[in-house]
Amino acid sequence: MIPTGQNQQLLQILRQPRTLQLYLTLALAASVVYSVVIYTPLYLREAIGATPLLNGSVLAVRAIGAAIVSALVASRLAKAVGTERAIALGFTLMSLTLVTIPFLDQLETIMPTAVLFGMGFGVVVPNVYDRLADQAPSELRSSVLAIGTGCNSLGQFISPLVLGPVWKYAGLPPVFYVAAAVALGTGLLNLLQRPQDSR
User: What is the pTM of this model?
Assistant: First the structure.
């Protein structure tokens, strides 16, 4: 249970525009990633008759790319170019790979694209959480980050609600274009933020 004084401090943090923007960033990142999880297997089944095993392999490669970059690259990139720019670069990479999905019909191009998408996501998420951690004192950091996890789940929930109608009325390619536009717009939103000193 958080003491009353800390509750008030937490509310103040949650009302800050930058905190809200970071939560929105997490939700939109999750929505974009979930669009890949849901709709890429459908596209690959239509385009190349992909089996469940192949679809699973593509998603696994994306996850591996994200994990490696999160662990080895994300922090170094943020120190080199600044956290906001790193987040924007990650979203841009995600956007570019999403745009190419409707043109992929060979395994030789599908797998590298999946890796690149995962790399973009692997840059975005740890740096957004890093900025969220900067928003709060140490005694409230776990609460602020936990809400971020909730925003991630919310983004996954929203993704099919928004993109499902796009798929129904316009087909699969526009789903990827809409997700790409969301990723690019979110990256630009972060790029416009005033840079903070990297830790």
Answer: 0.92
Q: Give the Å distances, CA to CA, from 151 to 28, 136, 138, 154, 173.
A: 9, 17, 20, 5, 27
Instruction: Identify the pLDDT of residue 6.
Output: 77
Return the pLDDT at 98: 97
Classify domain 29-191 by CATH architecture.
Up-down Bundle (1.20)
CB 47 within 8 A of CB 104: yes
Q: Give which of 184, 190, 23 is closest to 93, Cα–Cα.
A: 184
Question: Cα separation of 141 and 158, whole Å?
Answer: 26
What's the helix, strand, coil split of the chain in %, to 5? 90, 0, 10
Break the chain into its structural domains and give their ranges. 29-191
Look up residue 166 and give its two tokens: 């796009």
